[in-house]
Amino acid sequence: MAYTRKWNVAVVGATGAVGQQMVRLLQSSAIPLANVVLLSSQRSAGATVAFGDAELVVQEATPDQFTGIDIALFSAGGGVSKQLIPEAVQRGAVCIDNTSAYRMERDVPLVVPEVNAHRIADHRGIIANPNCSTIQLVVALKPIHDVLGVRSVVVSTYQAVSGAGARAVAETVRQTQAELEGRSVTPDVLPVASLPIKHPIAFNAIPQIDVFSSNGFTLEELKMVNETKKIMEEDIAVAATCVRVPVLNGHSESVRITCARPIDIDAVRTLLAQAPGVVVVDDVQNQRYPLARDASGCPDVFVGRIRRDLDDAHTMHMWIVSDNLLKGAAFNAMQIAEHLTKQEGARS
Ligand code: NAP
Ligand code: 3JM
């Protein structure tokens, strides 16, 4: 499909961990760009960011910045999305939101292009990007579901600190260094920046990401449950335990999958190897399996340790790894933007 026009694009939260990846990907994207506007809070306004041969000045995000914008990519937290997305939509922008603010709203498509790209066309101004841990899970589940009928999923995550933002990465490095030098540390970002109780992340594993709900699950865990159902099928049973580990970048997941039909593991391996966005790394004889450090910097979802359950012929286990800032956030959003511009370009 030939592009027929150029696009004005805004990145909200452009100075953040996700936003910086968005800006980098936008520079090499297939979308023909007219103007790019980088927005942040007042704190970073005035900073300059290299964009191709140009230097762009970061500006404070205000409603008027969206006048003339065609596509706005949001990753500045749920509060900012709630406040500014209605303003941007009113001014004619299509918003691709990386936060949880609108994901579960009925008229907002929740999109992972390998799974449900067809939903992009249903948007009414907002398209939501799922949570990072959901995205890598559904990319691997979809080809299995199409053939074997996934009935239930139990997932435990090993999530990198980059998922909690630039401050969490800095805290992890600082704490690790201090511990190694025998200095005491006072944690101040994790597990949840806005809560008063903190735990050290260096040499630790914290079974809390986001705040707790009254049912004993954290909101991160409930995002995985509800988003997987919305993207795939409501009656798939999902249970999640989300854990923050001192990995700088790249989320890993241990996943138990039960299917309606009995499982042939070699057929599953072939199915996954042929699936869009999936790379199978599964050669245990040679100790080859997906690793967060290898996945970091790559756009794909890596799957390995694929094995049948010892007791149940309908159940299997696998290890799923992806770069949480790329496929888990910025790359998925950019794929949505590319689909959108092709669709809209075809219409004009
Ligand atoms: P981060 O590194 O802390 O960056 C936050 C960004 O938001 C910065 O650019 C910051 O600008 C900007 N910002 C903060 N308050 C603002 C305001 N009032 N108005 C405009 N901009 C504001 O965080 P991050 O890791 O990039 O994550 C950002 C958000 O993306 C998260 O809160 C989350 O909702 C979403 N996210 C989604 C996924 C996913 O799974 N899809 C993964 C990670 C994050 P300053 O430089 O001025 O502070
Ligand atoms: C990932 O400040 C906030 O509201 C952001 C919290 C957050 C989210 C979220 O709920 O939007 C931090 C990191 C996410 C996410 O992707 O769900």
Describe the structure.
The protein has 348 residues and is of the alpha/beta class. The protein has two domains: 7-129 and 329-347, Rossmann fold; 134-324, Dihydrodipicolinate Reductase, domain 2 (2-Layer Sandwich). The chain has helices at 17-27, 78-90, 113-116, 132-148, 166-180, 219-231, 265-273, 292-295, 326-347; strands at residues 7-12, 33-40, 48-51, 54-57, 59-60, 71-74, 94-97, 126-128, 150-159, 237-244, 251-259, 278-280, 301-308, 315-322. Strands 5-2-1-6-7-8 form a six-stranded parallel beta sheet, with helices on both faces. Helix 1 crosses helix 9 (326-347). The protein is globular and about 60 Å long. Bound molecules: NADP nicotinamide-adenine-dinucleotide phosphate (NAP) and 3-(2-carboxyethyl)benzene-1,2-dicarboxylic acid. The site of 3-(2-carboxyethyl)benzene-1,2-dicarboxylic acid has 7 residues, from helix 2.
User: Which oligomeric state applies?
Assistant: single chain
How large, in whole angstroms, is the Cα Rg?
Answer: 20 Å
Biggest β-sheet strands, sense, barrel: 6 strands, parallel
CATH class category label of the largest domain:
Alpha Beta
Sheet with most strands: strand arrangement: 5-2-1-6-7-8
Output mean pLDDT.
97
**CATH fourth-tier homologous superfamily of the largest domain:** Dihydrodipicolinate Reductase, domain 2
How many individual β-strands? 14
Proportion of residues in helical segments = 25-40%
- The succession of helices and strands, N to C, reads EHEEEEEHEHEHEHHEEHEHEEH
Low-confidence stretches: none
Portion of residues in beta strands equals: 15-25%
Whole-number count of domains = 2
Bound molecules: NADP nicotinamide-adenine-dinucleotide phosphate, 3-(2-carboxyethyl)benzene-1,2-dicarboxylic acid
- Which structural class do the helices and strands define? alpha/beta
Q: What global shape is seen? A: globular
Total helical segments: 9
